[in-house]
Amino acid sequence: MSQALNSLTTGLQVGAALPLLTAVVQRPNWSARYKRIVAVAASLLAGITAVAAEGGWAQFQQGKLTTVTVLGVLVAAQTSYDLLWKPSKIAPVIEAATSRKTPQQAE
Fold first, then answer.
1. What is the pLDDT of residues 85-102, one digit of tens each?
2. For the segment 33-80, what is each residue's pLDDT rounded down to a tens digit?
3. Domain tally for the chain?
4. Buried b (16+ CB within 10 A) or exposed e, 54-92
5. What domain range includes position 62?
6. How far apart are CA 8 and CA 25, in angstroms?
7. At what angle do helices 90-98 and 2-25 cross, to 10 degrees?
């Protein structure tokens, strides 16, 4: 049971910070649907990376631990974005700051 708890904890920690990293990639002018697709894809990739970092590639043989970690990342990322990063305007500011400016916007 402690191995599952460790995997879940790792997933939650990665997921809590993931929206800030995702904001670097996302653009303010993207549709909500496209942003959601990018966020879910990033969560899945981060979850797989967290599984490999936590227990090595052998951990993928344990389906429950892999699932718990990936779902933990997804849930924590969406929850922290909705409850913390979006209301505080930190994620939207990062999106705007890392977006390319057109020549008209730069003036």
1. 889 998 888 888 888 765
2. 999 999 999 999 998 888 888 777 777 777 787 888 889 999 999 999
3. 1
4. bbeeebeeeeebbebbbbbbbebbbebbeeebeeeeebe
5. 2-106
6. 26
7. 50
